[in-house]
Design brief:
elongated; three-stranded antiparallel sheet; Porin; eight-stranded antiparallel barrel; 1 helix; mainly beta
Length: 215
Amino acid sequence: MRKEILFTLLTVVLTISYGYSQLRIGIRAGASTEELSPDDFNVIENGVDRLNIALKDAKYGVHAGLVIQARFNNFLFQPEILLNSNKVDFQVEDLQNPGTVVKEEKYQYLDVPVLLGYKFGPLRLHAGPVGHIYLNSTSDLTDFEGYKQDFKSMTLGWQGGLGIDIWKLMIDLRYEGNFNKFGDHITFGNTSYAFDETPARFLFSLGFMFGKNSR
């Protein structure tokens, strides 16, 4: 399923890009920080509260990948394919046998932003949808009986931000929002859980574009 989604996205991206007058390819890498407020929920088993799981700390993530930039006059079409890795700490309280531990989860996604932008001088403004294709994850929550991960093959969000071009270098600062609730992959028994808020993050990156640097 993930291969079919990726192939479709690549086909659309390359087809649209082909029609633009200036086409360049580059690489981009950077870091991100999750914007998540403290939140929690109780895991219920046989009508009894068993665990309390709370967000403790969303750590910095990293991303790197390929940029395709197509330009027509001052307008830009910029799809990207980025490997994204991040992690978060959960604080878990056993409500039956009092005690609290911290458990870590790590996630790897293939992020596919498809941005439309406008360039004036060295500055770029851009915004557009982003798809997150699930690749892999590891979790310390598996220490608790009945825990399962149920990730969607693909989730959607959006990005917007500002970029600065210096020679062939790209400096970008973006904000990303998402449409799914954070933690909606968490399952105990046959019950799915999630935190009340949707994930958001700030992304900072540096890039390098190959080919002729057009003004």
